[in-house]
Design a protein that fits this description.
26% helix; 6 strands; alpha+beta; 4 helices; six-stranded antiparallel beta sheet
Length: 151
């Protein structure tokens, strides 16, 4: 009996799926393609993404739109949670809070890095925190996220 690609992927744990995406960038989800996100680090409870800032990330003032930071942090924190889940267990963002500390010019070459780590993994919810830094290691944004676990 043949299994579909979706069935094969659902048999993987979260960390196995993330490592598959890391080693095969052509398989990354569409949001990763849209942002140009690269999965740098995948460890249990800890995930790092990075992006090259592009002019199309700009808001009307010419700085990187806050939604880019939010999406990057949501991905890092959510995937950190996912890295601790077994096969067939899903998750979704229940609540997210962000603090923006610095702006980044969208027309200047720059790399942003988002790090997410799990603070607590329970049966039905998980708590993660994350930060976005620039190439100099300066904090650009910080966030926390509660995820609902779908068992």
């Amino acid at each position: 009996m043949n299994t579909s690609p979706a069935e094969a992927l659902s048999a993987l744990s979260g960390i196995q799926l993330l490592r598959l995406f890391q080693s095969n960038p052509e398989l990354r989800p569409n949001i990763g393609v849209l942002l140009g996100a690269e999965l740098q680090t995948v460890e249990e409870g800890h995930v790092v993404f990075s992006i090259e800032v592009r002019p199309d990330h700009a808001n009307p003032l010419g700085t990187v739109h806050g939604g880019i930071h939010a999406t990057l942090l949501d991905s890092a924190m959510g995937c950190a949670v996912h890295s601790m889940l077994g096969p067939g267990i899903g998750y979704g963002t229940l609540e997210m809070k962000l603090n923006y500390l610095r702006t980044i010019q969208a027309d200047a070459p720059s790399r942003l890095t988002a790090t997410g780590r799990v603070l607590h993994l329970g049966r039905s919810t998980a708590l993660a925190e994350g930060q976005v830094t620039n190439e100099a290691g300066k904090l650009i944004a910080h966030g926390t996220e509660t995820c609902m676990i779908y068992r």
